[in-house]
Amino acid sequence: MIRVYVMQTCPDCTSAKQLLKDDPRFQLIDIGEQARNLKQFLSLRDNNPAFERVRQRGTIGIPCFVFEDGNIAFSLEKVMQIVKDMPQALPDDQPEDGASCSIDGKGC
User: Fold this and answer.
1) CATH classification (class only), 2-83
2) Half-sphere exposure in the Cβ direction for 58 (13 Å, CA)
3) What does the pLDDT look like over 74-96, one tens digit per residue?
4) What is d(CA 106, CA 57) in angstroms, rounded to the nearest whole number?
5) Most exposed residue of 16, 32, 54, 86, measured as fewest CB within 10 angstroms of its CB?
6) What is the arrangement of strands in the sheet containing 26-30, beginning at the earlier edge strand?
């Protein structure tokens, strides 16, 4: 899952939130919603070299896309190019085809 740090009042985040809100491959984290979210983002921003140019420009660095392998991106367009071939995850309550061999879904 790709974590996406956004903020409700950020104009650059608005399109990202709209596009990704129903995509289970992304976890939207609003840094203005809870202090815990802000603290988590600031720790990432203050300690990750990917934010060096962001800090030099004096910008915040959102939307921020954090991949499972730790890579970070700041462009929605680049992220969408990367994930276009990634399969959409099934909801937790929906088994994959062939995951059970009984009609009631309880297994073989």
Assistant:
1) alpha beta
2) 0
3) 999 889 888 887 666 545 544 44
4) 56
5) 86
6) 26-30, 2-6, 64-66, 72-73
